[in-house]
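Re: beginner question about structure tokens

> Can someone show what the tokenized structure looks like for a real chain? I only ever see the sequence side.

Sure, here's an example I had lying around. Input first:
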Amino acid sequence: MPHLLKSLELNGFKSFAQKTILEFPAGITAIVGPNGSGKSNVVDAIRWLLGEREAKNLRGGKVEDLIFAGTPEKPRQSLAQASLRFQNEGNFFPVDWSEISVTRQVSRDGESRYFLNQSEIRLKDLIDFFAKVRLGTKGLIVITQGNSDLFIRANPSERREMIEEMLGLREFQIKKLRAENQLKNTQINLDKVRALIEEILPHLRSLRRQTARWDKRDTLETELKNLENVLFGSEWRYLHQEMIKTDEELSRHKKELTELEISRAKAEKHQKEVEIGEPREREELKKIKLQVSDLLEKQIRLEKDLGRLEAQLEISSSQNLPSSLSNQKLINLIREVRHHLELGLDKNIDEVKNLIQELLKKIDSELALPTGPSPKPNLEVKSQLEKINHDLGAVKKEILALREKEKQLEKSQGEFYQSFKSAVTAVEDSKRKIESWENSNQKIVFNKERLSLRLEELKRQIAQAGRHPKEIQELILGQALELNQGLESHELRELERQIFKIRGDLASIGEVDEALVKEAKETEERYQFLKRELEDAEKAKGNLRELIRDLNEKIKTEFNSALREINREFGNFFKLMFGGGHAKLNLKKADKKIVSESNGEEGKVENGGEAEDDTSEGIEIDLGLPRKRLTSLEVLSGGEKSLVGIAALFALISVSPPPFLVLDEIDAALDERNARRFAELLKSFSKQTQFVLVTHNRASMEVADVLYGVTLNNDGTSKILSLKLDSAS
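And the corresponding structure tokens:
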């Protein structure tokens, strides 16, 4: 009996939280247990190890669902790991190892790792490894729970993939897919190379033209250099001489500043001397003005007293007033006198006397005093009146004397002020001259800065022309160039026009130096390399097309040959299962070329006409049940679909026996009679194929060589119990 599958080790995978090992002997291994105990997790682990990537095909929503999620009694785990061990003493696997170990891990962050005999590999490598020995997830090596009618439910293309994997043609389909992808990439590379060649050729032609124009370029460069010498040299020399003139002007100007500062210092010194020589009479003049002011106040007081006494004298003689003078007229007279007296307060003594005389006349006229002798005035009042008149005369004399002295002092003070004003004017004039010098000096400095900026700009232009400013400077010192009046002159504009023209000619020729020679050489080498690459790619494209044709032919030949045998066996097993009828697998053209490798790293390639499409034919099922007319496979019952699937499965393993099969409750929909037939077929085929079977069917258990029982522990994890039926009996 074949014995390839040796053992399965689970650790943290789904319900198997702790490390669990299942040994698989030759023959039939049955796994039984109540629903929900974790039996199907064993099948999921084997499918996962064979390269399944989709969690939904392992009864999970995401990869994290493969890791033990934890129970109230046992915490969850962060890593799920499973390992399959194979016997390889007969060199079933094309490696020099007597035992093969395949391990797969997944963590909660979604990272997956793959190991072959403890060496880490890629998933692509693992798929290739199994494809070479007719193992994988596309065929019927592993049939998971609820998929007993998988062969019926699959579309024509998927049925073909199942058959090809069972026949060992999956390896060639993968090679063909990769060849088609390589062909596609080669075509892309061809297009890129052609585009690069088309891009390089114009530039290469330009380089070739430039190398043919070197002689002309040398002549133009010499002419350009001579013109630049004249242009830059003339401008440099002009600016240099202008800056010399400006420096000389600044030097002369600084001497003028020295003279102006000396003149200002003399004027300021003279002003201070004048201020120091200010006459002392200034203080005395102030004192005289104060004395005059005090005497005027005293005069006013005396005049007021004089008016009061005179009024008293007038009152004393009031009995002589005419009786016809009314009170109102008298009041008006008094008011008028009072008004004139107030006006006399601001007048000198002579004017006051005249005013008093006029007032007396006015009073006499109004009162019309009698001409006879007046009453004898009061002697005391007359005495006071005389004293006041005497004091008033003295005050007036003193005021006149002070006024005369004040005039003399003011005349002396005016002469001082005139001298001081002249000194101040001289100082201000010297300051204005210095300000004028500063403005003029600023203009000269600005002119020098302008010349410096023009020189810097000239140096920048020289550098842009690829020349060194020092070269032009040495040229001026060594040769006598004609002095031009800057860039505004007609001669310089003509020089600029000629230079621009030559530069344009040189630009059209392009730079031809060592770098250009190197570029031309590298471009030529690049062009020749791309031509060789293009030829190699064309050759590779032809080889790939030939390889794809060969693979198509091999797949087509072997598949068609095997399909005839499969149909013969399929018909026999179908009649056995249904007690008659007929069944056949027919080829059907597919709309698209399906050569997907969904579990690998390569994508789908649609038929682009590069390869023959014979291998894209799908498989249709044509069958007829005894005593029943079928219009489609959908009208079959669940049990009938299972029987058709089982018939197809045993037909395939009859033609191309796989090393092992893993079946999960594919007999669940069978009645007792068909279950017995299924068990007998298992017993018969166990001589050439190793079976791992999950079942609830008693007949299947009876033909098993080893029976594993799966149960749940108190902590919610799965536990394995084993029983060898031979020893048990």
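Each token stands for a local structural state, so reading them left to right follows the chain. The radius of gyration is 66 Å.
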